[in-house]
Amino acid sequence: MDINGDGIFTISDIWELLHLLYFYPGDWILSKIIETKFGTFFEFFTNDYGGLFSGIISFICWLILFAGINETFKDIFNYSKKTKDDEERNE
After folding, report:
1. In Å, how far are 41, 55, 75 from 68, measured between CA atoms?
2. How many CB atoms lie within 10 A of CB 60?
3. 20-63: pLDDT as tens digits
4. Distance (Å, whole) CA 29 – CA 63
5. Nearest Cα to 27, choosing from 54, 65, 60, 59?
6. Residue 6 phi/psi, 5° resolution?
7. With contact defined as beta carbons under 8 Å apart, do 48 and 71 qualify?
8. 80 in Cβ contact with 58 (< 8 Å)
9. SS3 42
10. With CB atoms counted within 10 Å of each terminal CB, which end of the chain scores lower, N or C?
């Protein structure tokens, strides 16, 4: 689990791991478009991993994911609340 390659696991590795996980969606998308005409036009290279474009894309991906999780939990809890309310009305 030594992310920074210094041979030991420290708190710095945790920060590097969080950085890696945050930028992963943007870096993955960037890796797919680097060799395309779009990537060539905008001059994307592998040294852009973890950069501004990757950060913006990652932010949007994480925002969509957490919004979806939030909506899912709201639907689950509203369904269970509606079910309890319906049961109380039927009694």
Report:
1. 33, 20, 10
2. 13
3. 999 999 999 999 999 999 999 999 998 889 999 999 999 999 99
4. 16
5. 54
6. -90, 0
7. no
8. no
9. coil
10. C
Comparing 1-10, 52-61, 66-75, which segment has the lowest mean pLDDT? 1-10
Tokens of 17: 């791991």
Distance CA 39, CA 56 (A): 16
Q: Give CA separation, 17 vs 9, 10, 40, 68, 88, in Å.
A: 11, 11, 29, 24, 49
Residue 47's closest CA among 31, 32, 62, 58? 31
